[in-house]
Amino acid sequence: MTVYLRDRRPVRHRPGSGRDLAALVSRRPRPDLARERRNVLRQTSPEFSRLARISKAQVVRFEIIRRTATIVML
Question: pTM of the entire structure?
Fold first, then answer.
């Protein structure tokens, strides 16, 4: 089973607002985006592993770049 992870931080500005559009069109290098994604999902990996262990499942793959986690039920 593949689970898609999302950012659980509160939204800084309303979707579709001027600030939101300005953030979308600003240029940022890939390494900066990857670093931000790793920081956002840093806690998620251990929490997800703990949830899988409780559910008697095994985490097969955890991809931060794609924001996915693949688990297999035991």
Answer: 0.61
72: phi then psi, degrees, rounded to nearest 5 = -125, 130
Tell me the residue type at 52. A
CA dihedral (23, 29, 33, 35) positive or negative: negative
**SS3 label, residue 10:** coil
pLDDT digits (tens, 9 = 90+) for 19-68: 888 888 888 898 998 888 888 888 888 888 898 899 999 999 988 878 88
CA–CA separation, 4 and 74 (whole Å): 20
Alpha helices in 1-74 (DSSP H): 18-25, 30-41, 44-54
Q: Is there a contact between 74 and 60 (Cβ–Cβ < 8 Å)?
A: no
Q: Could you tell me the sign of the dihedral formed by the alpha carbons of 46, 47, 52, 53, in that order?
A: positive
Provide the 3-class DSSP secondary structure of residue 51: helix
